[in-house]
């Protein structure tokens, strides 16, 4: 029983980490797009189209949330999940460069 308890987080991480990293980056980019576009002054017609686009982009965050819950249900710790997120960001130079420009 103890081996199964210790193996569950390892197996969960092994199976889900790559998809989780990709969905984290997708969600992060969707949130950044939303923050950037919400700062723009747009006419009402264009604003409506932008808001529709942003709503669709936010669907990317649902994948991230689902995978995060699956990791948590596999007993992957919060610090380990945060480390996976950090690894994802560090693997994407465009995101790091974007953060430095802000």
Short description:
By secondary structure, the chain is an all-alpha fold. It has one domain (2-90). Helices cover 88% and strands 0% of the residues.
Largest sheet, described in full?
none
Taking the alpha carbons of the first and last residues, their distance comes to 49 Å
How many domains, in number, for the residues? 1
Low-confidence stretches: none
Number of helices: 4
Q: Helix content range of the residues, please?
A: over 70%
H/E element sequence:
HHHH
Number of strands: 0
Shape: elongated
Q: Can you give a write-up of this model?
A:
The chain is elongated. The model has no long low-confidence stretch (mean pLDDT 82). Helix 1 crosses helix 3. It is mostly helical. It has helices at 2-39, 44-73, 78-90, 93-101. The chain is 88% helix and 0% strand. The chain contains four helices and no strands. The protein has one domain (2-90).
Task: Spell out the key features of this protein.
88% helix, single chain, 102 residues, mainly alpha
Task: Give the helix/strand layout.
Elements: H1 2-39, H2 44-73, H3 78-90, H4 93-101
Helix pairs in contact: 1-2, 1-3
């Amino acid at each position: 029983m103890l081996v199964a308890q210790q193996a569950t987080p390892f197996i969960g991480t092994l199976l889900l980490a790559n998809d989780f990293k990709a969905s984290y980056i997708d969600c992060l980019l969707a949130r950044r797009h939303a923050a950037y576009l919400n700062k723009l002054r747009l006419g009402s017609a264009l604003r409506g189209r932008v808001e529709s686009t942003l709503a669709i982009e936010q669907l990317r965050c649902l994948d991230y949330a689902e995978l995060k819950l699956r990791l948590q249900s596999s007993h992957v710790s919060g610090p380990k999940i945060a480390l996976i997120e950090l690894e994802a960001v560090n693997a994407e130079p465009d995101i790091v460069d974007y953060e430095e420009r802000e």
